[in-house]
């Protein structure tokens, strides 16, 4: 090859089509790198091999819901929504209790009516 032709080094990175799984500790460490303000989110993402949009998502989840949201990768639910759901569950449990009691009362009444309507077996005519 002639000396006057410059060859540049090319690095090709392939992931083989596999999704990488990040541990909670890795997610927290990477998100914390974005919070110190020394590097942009894109730079931190590139340095750690994370898609920038995924890092933005982790960061948003952590800022909204703390480390638990990042660990579980779940959406954050507000306390007021949780309270509403708990109240609804309590109301449904009360209604279920009333319906269960009604069913027992009706079953007892049905059993008593069957006993009263049975013909006598003593042989009276």
From TrEMBL:
Coiled-coil intervals: 82-109
Highest rank taxon of the organism: Bacteria
TM regions (residue ranges): none
Pfam family, one: HTH_Tnp_1
Sorted UniProt keywords: Coiled coil
Family named by the database record: Belongs to the transposase 8 family.
Name listed for the protein in its UniProt record: Transposase
Organism expressing this protein natively: Paracoccus acridae
Taxonomic classification: Bacteria, Pseudomonadati, Pseudomonadota, Alphaproteobacteria, Rhodobacterales
């Amino acid at each position: 090859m002639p000396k006057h032709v410059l060859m540049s080094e090319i690095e090709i990175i392939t992931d083989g089509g596999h999704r990488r799984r990040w541990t909670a500790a890795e997610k927290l460490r990477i998100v914390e790198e974005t919070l110190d303000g020394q590097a942009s989110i894109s730079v931190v993402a590139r340095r750690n091999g994370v898609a920038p949009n995924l890092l933005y998502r982790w960061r948003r989840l952590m800022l909204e819901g703390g480390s638990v949201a990042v660990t579980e990768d779940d959406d954050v639910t507000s306390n007021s929504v949780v309270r509403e759901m708990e109240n609804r569950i309590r109301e449904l449990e009360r209604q279920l209790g009333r319906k269960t009691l009604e069913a027992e009362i009706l079953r007892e009444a049905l059993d008593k009516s069957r006993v009263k309507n049975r013909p006598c077996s003593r042989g009276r005519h």
